[in-house]
């Protein structure tokens, strides 16, 4: 098993390295870090700009291969992912933002999984009854709502609520109030700030689990072995829960394993709307500020999370499904 | 969808559960044979949500085509005498935005822009995915491994980043957006098609074609692709819905369609800053985009149920 | 636990255990209401076995599912089924669940899918026990192991912890039986319990079922399409057709004197293992009716050779043959046929009900095989696969010798039957031949041309024309999205025919040749019945005018009444077109009927080969003998009297090319040998050797001792 994981990990690692380097060249081709300086007052000469950029290994006059070599050796030797055009450390940014994103997305992911799977089980055993159709209708709606719409609708609702109450019960922007202090104060502030983004994220992501779990369970409800279980003397419900559910939950679990690492890559739209400085927002910012190193680091991080997710999914299958045990 | 009816029609080749053998005799098709198209139509029309989706989509397309002729405002033209007016004021049916653009004209244009992008991307990705997936499945062995390796590599590429880079570089031209969304949009679908086609590869009629010396290209086009036809139709429909979402998201954060062109995504982005002062700038495009995606999703689910006799679910697998 | 046995098992005297009256089941469908079961009645007494026979779609499985309450919700069931005090059909799921598994156990057709894949075999049996009995986990586990032992699973202690995918089909079916009898049921319903299994395993499972019945004293309902299985295991038989029972009688009476034309037709259509006749089989013409909006008429009328006008006026009820005098006794013989009184011994008014069809061409006398041209020659062909272990990480742990150095020769106009259990390498052999690529080892030559020498595309396509294949599954081998015309035109186009008129003419000719109406060329495969689809498959194979047809189980997916017609067609075509066949089948009766020569395959090797009569009449290899003896005969008397050679265990996997005989793990002869002889079996691979008779060779060191000792 360990050997298998190791082999897979090596394969993924090579792909990540390749993809990251490709991204580096693409980003260098499309992003112009110099534009961060052109708008400055007093205006600077191109030589001055290039001089500043050279400090951060972004000078467009240096051959791209040289810059790549410098960048690469920085990563390999010091795990230093470089600097932004204005000199900020990419490492610092990523380290800080991973936590912010994780904090934001963790709650909604867990809620979405629990709610979605429970709903899938509930509706599958009531196939074509009213509650099934009603929930399914809602899920189709939420599954197909663009996250921007969901997030903004939540904001709109919260604004209306706050206006009606006359106080800011639910803050619609930021991760916490800048002027609170003390552990409990910060905690409370963070909690209230997280409520709205969590609602909007849960709303758009629970439906995937609901519809998946429902259709998988329905596939298994009509399987031969559920019939055998009923022939042994289980009622239909018991047979579905004891035999159908255990088998059908395996693909859902792999999906969850796949989704978990994506927590830390954040939710671009939601972070933008709610002004959380997480990885998603960083991603948008790196592109709009022509931050080559930041953008590549985000891409590499995303690829790493995909790889971890894929490996986790394999591990989950092996753990849950005796048919795929590696001896 | 009202009842889970036993299947017949041209797809009775699926393994039949023995418990309903009496209901399933392959002979059922003979005396009262419905043509497949009629059968699919009957199944589809019985599915009321799907029918509603179809009507809705039809109306949206009609609106995006006829809409521009119902107003004298152009979506690019700014009415500086009425900035940010509410719907109905100054002859602006849906009001204007902060720059004085007529919201109705923008909405119609944005809708048609979103529909064009989504339909062309979905059509292209489905075609590429179908050919790529079936080819990999047909040849198997090393060819298959190499092709799948390529797909995996594309999957790990930061597609969103590249789309954003390229999209920004070309100043949000929608044709460029179609290209990049297609290039990075077909891989997951082709994996699904590949896994389905590998089971077709083992089908005896494909083996028979091979043993008769039918050329690989012909076998792929005549046997493999038509037999995943229903999946392709469903994929296309759902692909439209997901492309609308992708395009909206891209435009929303500023990497998709750009000024002066308008899509539903850019309208949402504009609307987010005036939620409390000019909410119509948000909810009009929001309603439009949700109607569009939900309509496509309902059609897709309905088609899946209608075309697939073994399908018991209206859900997404 | 076995006190049920004290209850009178004499039928007719005691209260029946199960009494079914007027059972009806309907399903909704796109075409209308399907009447799957239309009024079935029978009584079943303790300790007795009732066989329900019928072809697919006759409603036999639906009947059993209705009794168990396992039909889907949308099925509507009416009638009475009294088991003990209860009318089973009126109980809800909860009440029925108390009966299911406790008073009724059920065995399903497909053992591969009927066990939950993620639970161990032992825990699934424990669950069956604990649902109905208040047992501690330890006690239940102990009992589960006992049950596994009872059904003949070796090392039950260890195997109980195994998962279903680690068990072979036969072993899984044993586990299902263990589960069905776990709570000592009064009634065991076996729904095609052996259809998915090989003959040697089928014989074992039928034996286990008998053991189970003896242990529990239960009554058994045996549902099958195989008249041989019924003959060997049932006391009474119900023949079902179009959702009704059309004939009911004690087994001996039914087989000795069937009175319903359908039953007579079924029996006549079966090729017999115990007769060497090469006459045409007698198919039952037509196909069963649609069970939608049935008219009030005998449903068999359209297919019946002795139909009268009155038959179409009202559906005849199931009534005693020859009046009411025998009605009350259990030995009553009932039929649903107006003319059954006139029928005796398969004849009516002195003429047989089903006249034997004429062969289209009389077989040209077989000249000695050697003088004819060789169409196909395999020598020393070997095909190996890497044996991998583990689900995700595939490690190569050995080599499977799927085909291990086999020699086969087929002459012009000859049919070679290749027989063996699934997994013996038959299909791999076929694919090796059809692939037209040089084998790993050995040589394949088609009409004298070595495939290793085929370099140019043109050469390959020339050889392709000469050799074509007919597949097992008539539905799976035809593209459902193509019309019959396109299906038949495809091979013509593939060999370069472009002229539309010529193609059309050839397609019409082909359809005519296989007995299909050329008018139907615009239809899709789904519009045809199974037998017709197989004819389309044959027509497609004939399109390029091949010299050799490879037939992979061409009739095993067909119902008996249809199978006979296809076999006749194959025989006619062979004579008419001078074809040679390589006929692969697991059904030895069919092989006996159609082949000139036979090769028996075991673990990738040919273990016996010779002329059909020689091999079937005087089998020499112990495996061939076991195979022949495992086949149930559709004759209850012969079934009861003949001696069985039961093979133990399953087909092992042909890993690694160790010397020695591959059959020793299951060989009954091996057990009787002396130690030095056993040593020889283990150490020396037996070669195919000719003994006395020409053209009859076997690969057993001690075939002689066996033959002499036995005769």
Question: How would you sum up this structure, described in words?
Answer:
The complex is a heterotrimer of chains A (327), B (317) and C (711). Chain A has helices at 2-30, 35-38, 46-55, 64-78, 90-124, 130-143, 147-165, 183-221, 224-232, 236-259, 268-274, 279-288, 292-320. Chain A is mostly helical. Chain A has a domain at 93-280: MetI-like fold (Orthogonal Bundle), CATH 1.10.3720. Chain A has 13 helices and no strands. Chain B is mainly alpha-helical and 317 residues long. Chain B has one domain: Orthogonal Bundle (MetI-like fold). In chain B, helix 5 runs antiparallel to helix 6 (141-156) and helix 13 packs antiparallel against helix 14 (280-307). Chain C is of the alpha/beta class and 711 residues long. Chain C folds into 3 domains: 4-103 and 185-351, Rossmann fold; 374-602, P-loop containing nucleotide triphosphate hydrolases (Rossmann fold), CATH 3.40.50; 607-710, no CATH class. Chains B and C meet through helix 1, helix 2, helix 3, helix 10 and helix 11 of B and strand 1, strand 2, helix 1, helix 12 and helix 13 of C.
Distance separating the two termini of chain C: 44 Å
Segments of chain A where pLDDT lies below 50 for 5+ residues?
none
Q: Over all CA atoms, what is the radius of gyration of chain C?
A: 27 Å
List how many beta strands of chain A DSSP finds: 0
Major beta sheet of chain A, specifics?
A: none
How confident overall, as mean pLDDT of chain C?
85
CATH topology of the domain at 93-280 in chain A: MetI-like fold
* Strand portion of chain A: under 5%
Query: Number of DSSP helices of chain C?
Result: 23
Give the H and E element order of chain A.
Answer: HHHHHHHHHHHHH
- Report the strand count of chain C: 27
CA gyration radius of chain A, whole angstroms: 25 Å
Principal-axes geometry of chain A comes out as globular
Task: Please tally the helical runs of chain A, counting DSSP H or I stretches of 4 or more residues.
Answer: 13
For the record, the CATH architecture of the largest domain in chain C stands as 3-Layer(aba) Sandwich
Give start-end ranges of low-pLDDT stretches of chain C.
1-12, 707-711
